[in-house]
Specification:
heterodimer; A: about 300 residues; mainly alpha; MetI-like fold; 2 domains; 13 helices; B: about 290 residues; alpha/beta; Rossmann fold; six-stranded mixed β-sheet; four-stranded antiparallel β-sheet
């Protein structure tokens, strides 16, 4: 048979197609595609459920009431569905956390990238990344059992047991590694010849860092800030434990508040019957939360894309 | 006063020589004008420079006098230590961990490696232009003004920017778009912007580390013309692995070579014409006639 093909001008035996091998290769391709499809389908499914359930909520409550109301009491007999206290609590914690993670994270990134010796860097960077691996429930208990008592005995005796400030502190600490690690990458990506150019006109190390390297890496650094803020907004366990469960539109961090994520936990764990409006509130709150973090991640991606263009 | 007059005479003589050389380059003929009779002063005096990267020695016992207001070329094959030697003149090697330098580099009678010397102060007197054009991701104006700003320049910044860009032969091309990013310029323009940035801090000496190796022939010629122009006001030291370039632009040439021990040493240093027409060392002759390297 093989001899015939060769005689007829077909491929010689060693170049002939091997059907079995081709099938295996195809099967591997499909299997890999399926794995990739799982994550995409899951995301699509989650968004669909959020949108469908969320829209059903708006059949009973007007979007106007939802987005502008200042009272959130779906679980009381006197129901009110103003989401602002939850958004306010979430943003209060996120902004407070950013006040800690942005300066401390940036400073550690600059230290790691520009000042630390390679040996110091090799030790410090993994330690910072371990901080990112601490389970968030540990941070929550750390807030409740260490930070809050410390605040009450030292700075602010009027602090409530559950308060936004302790959540800000631990979420801020929690997001430091994110800021420092991503900012460090951005600083490292600044080409060495820009540093040399700055040194070449007589800049000191501090001038090189502050006037050339940091501005050149700024868009990457800002992207790290936005991602950290997005993480702070979505953070659940620590704020549920530390900040309390009292929806409260306030700017006072010493009071108890409730974040959007903490509310979802509260309802999901409770005995709220399926199909009720109380139950649907968690979908609409989740949808709002998803929209907020999505917008922030898109902004971060845009900023990062701009950053990539700079040295092309 | 007397000193000033001598300086003036010297500059005029040097500038005449440079112009003559510039013209002959443009005519496509190698500059063979004799040096002016007046012996130029010494801008940089290197005494017994040796350099180690960790345990590995890269430069061995080089002594070299760089003449003021002249272009001095460092040539030699890859790895001969010419760039490393150049970077000893503005203490750029200090930025690399594990570098050890022995010997002295005298500028204006002071050893820049003396204790209590601040490298950033040295670099304000010894500017540098790099192999790859490296403008900051800032506007053209801010690129030029950068050094002056950090050095606390109190004069008129607009004038300084215009003067520096004019000296770097870039002003006419960019005067209407000073706010544009330096990175938007062509490679040759970027390199002239880097030259403007270097001279804006008013250095005495400008080091150029293979400044044309990333440029096309036309941009290269502009930079070469510029080097001769700049020699009126500055002392130029240029590293090049292009021998024709050394022959075209330099008044003095130093040939360096790393032999079997891989330590770069100075083989021959003399007037450029002498090096190319009448080399004293057989290794110089072999290199310039293209037998190795």
């Amino acid at each position: 048979m093989a001899a015939d093909t060769a005689a007829a001008g077909g491929p010689a035996a060693q170049f002939q197609r091997r059907r079995g091998r081709e099938l295996v290769e195809q099967a591997i391709g499909y299997a890999l595609f399926l794995c990739a499809a799982i994550t995409v389908l899951t995301t699509v499914g989650i968004v669909l459920i959020l949108v469908v359930e969320g829209l059903q909520f708006f059949r009973d409550v007007s979007p106007w009431e939802f987005f502008t109301g200042t009272k959130w009491t779906p679980l009381f007999t006197n129901q009110a569905f103003g989401v602002l206290p939850l958004i306010g609590g979430t943003l209060l914690v996120a902004v407070g956390a950013a006040l800690i993670s942005v300066p401390v994270g940036s400073a550690s990134a600059i230290y790691l990238s520009e000042f630390a010796s390679p040996a110091t860097r090799a030790v410090l960077k993994p330690i910072l990344e371990i901080l990112a691996g601490v389970p968030t429930v540990v941070y929550g208990y750390f807030a409740l059992t260490a930070v809050t008592p410390l605040l009450r005995t030292t700075l602010f005796p009027e602090t409530e047991i559950f308060n936004a400030l302790s959540a800000m502190v631990v979420v801020g600490i929690m997001t430091i590694p994110m800021v420092s690690s991503l900012s460090d990458d951005a600083l490292h990506a600044v080409p060495a010849d820009l540093r040399e150019a700055a040194y070449g006109v007589g800049a000191t190390k501090f001038e090189v860092v502050t006037r050339v390297v940091y501005p050149a890496a700024l868009s990457g650094i800002i992207a790290s800030y936005i991602l950290a803020a997005s993480r702070a907004i979505g953070e659940t366990m620590a704020v549920t434990i530390a900040a309390g469960a009292s929806p409260n539109l306030t700017a006072n961090p010493l009071e108890s508040i409730q974040t959007m994520t903490a509310y979802i936990v509260q309802v999901s764990l409770g005995d709220t019957p399926h199909g009720t409006i109380e139950f649907r509130t968690i979908f609409v709150v989740a949808l709002t939360l998803f929209a907020m973090t999505l917008v922030m991640n898109i902004i971060a991606a845009r900023v990062t894309a701009r950053f990539r263009e700079v040295y092309d | 006063m007397v000193g000033n007059v001598t300086d003036e005479a010297e500059r005029t003589a040097a500038s005449a020589a440079a112009r003559a050389a510039g013209v002959s380059v443009q005519a496509g003929v190698r500059a063979t004008e004799p040096e002016p009779a007046a012996e130029p002063g010494i801008a940089v005096e290197m005494r017994n420079i040796s350099l180690w990267y960790g345990q590995k020695q890269a430069v061995g016992n080089v002594s070299l006098d760089v003449p003021r207001n002249r272009v001095t070329a460092l040539i030699g094959p890859s790895g001969c230590g010419k760039s490393t030697l150049l970077r000893c003149i503005n203490r750029m090697n200090d930025l690399i961990d594990g570098v050890r330098i022995e010997g002295e580099v005298m500028i204006d009678g002071a050893n820049i490696y003396a204790p209590n010397t601040e490298p950033s102060q040295v670099r304000r007197h010894v500017g540098m232009v790099f192999q790859k054009p490296n403008p900051f991701p800032k506007s053209i104006y801010d690129n030029v003004a950068f050094g002056a700003k950090i050095n606390g320049y109190t004069g008129n910044m607009d004038d300084l920017v215009e003067e520096s860009l004019t000296k770097a032969a870039l002003w006419d091309e960019v005067k209407h778009e000073l706010k544009k990013s330096g990175l938007a310029l062509s490679g040759g323009q970027q390199q002239r912007l880097c030259i403007a940035r270097a001279i804006a801090v008013n250095p005495e000496i400008v080091l150029m580390d293979e400044p044309c190796s990333a440029l096309d022939p036309i941009a290269t010629q502009r930079i070469e013309d510029l080097m001769l122009e700049l020699a009126n006001d500055y002392t130029i030291v240029v590293v090049t692995h292009n021998m024709q370039q050394a022959a075209r632009v330099s008044h003095k040439t130093a040939f360096m070579l790393a032999e079997d021990d891989l330590v770069g040493r100075l083989i021959e240093f003399s007037d450029t014409d002498e090096i190319f027409l009448n080399p004293q060392d057989s290794r110089t002759e072999e290199y310039i006639t293209g037998r190795f390297g």
